[in-house]
Amino acid sequence: MEKITTVKWLDNLTMVAETASGHALVMDGPPDIGGRNLGPRPMEMVLVGLGGCTSVDVIMILQKAREQVRDCRVEVYAERADTVPKVYTKIHVHYVVSGHNLDPKKVERAVKLSAEKYCSVSKMLEQAAEVTHDFEIVDETAPSD
């Protein structure tokens, strides 16, 4: 098994994570339970990973389909269980894909392929939560090259 990250406690609820790829980030808890709000919550990081993973998939699939994608924003919404452990029970991923004359069928296909085949984070989370997806397309003017 490969070590992916090391998380070191600093103080209060503040932790620093270092990834195998050499990047560091701070996580913290909210002030009402002893944190100082210096970084995202660990559970937020799970959804950050989902958003990043699926964004890469959708962009790469659309680029391979020769779509003129200019931007992809992923908004992740979630509900958590009321009792401990407060796991995510529902997750909704909304894609806002911008570009010139994008084909809605290709965008839909890219989202579906990411959700059903390529996004490891999504596939893992769907084992514990209901994960849904939708998208919207923002048509931009022709790119000026």
UniProtKB/TrEMBL annotation:
Record Pfam families: OsmC (PF02566)
SUPFAM superfamilies for the chain: OsmC-like
TM stretches of this protein: none
Protein name: Putative redox protein
